[in-house]
Design a protein that fits this description.
CATH class: Alpha Beta
Strand content: 25-35%
Number of helices: 2
Strand order of the largest sheet: 1-5-4-3-2
Radius of gyration: 13 Å
Largest sheet: 5 strands, mixed
Number of domains: 1
Length: 97
């Protein structure tokens, strides 16, 4: 199964990494590693994470206040958002078509 990223989700991941880089050198790489580990877990067991709406799941990242919002398609996993869990929880809904 392949992963498809919404362009705004890619931007969010990059912005979060930049934020952590400014906060502490090397912390951005830790964030990116944890993000990649979460993506690998999603690929292995995409239905493991809770449904938050219709066919949309949320995988929380350990040690960081972020989650991956995604949906399953017939042949792919679509990453809709890499969202900060304490800010505007439903902003990504406009990305669902």
């Amino acid at each position: 199964m392949k992963v498809q990223w919404h362009k705004e989700a890619q931007r969010e991941a990059a912005e979060a990494a930049r934020f952590y880089q400014e906060k502490q050198p090397g912390l951005e790489q830790r964030f990116l590693d944890i993000l990649e580990e979460a993506l690998q877990r999603i690929l292995r067991r995409p239905k493991l994470y809770p449904l938050i709406e219709n066919q949309i799941h949320k995988c929380k990242l350990p040690r960081f206040p972020y989650g991956i919002i995604y949906r399953l398609n017939s042949d792919s996993i679509e990453i809709l958002a890499v969202m900060h869990l304490r800010r505007e929880p439903g902003y990504w809904k406009m990305r669902v078509t």
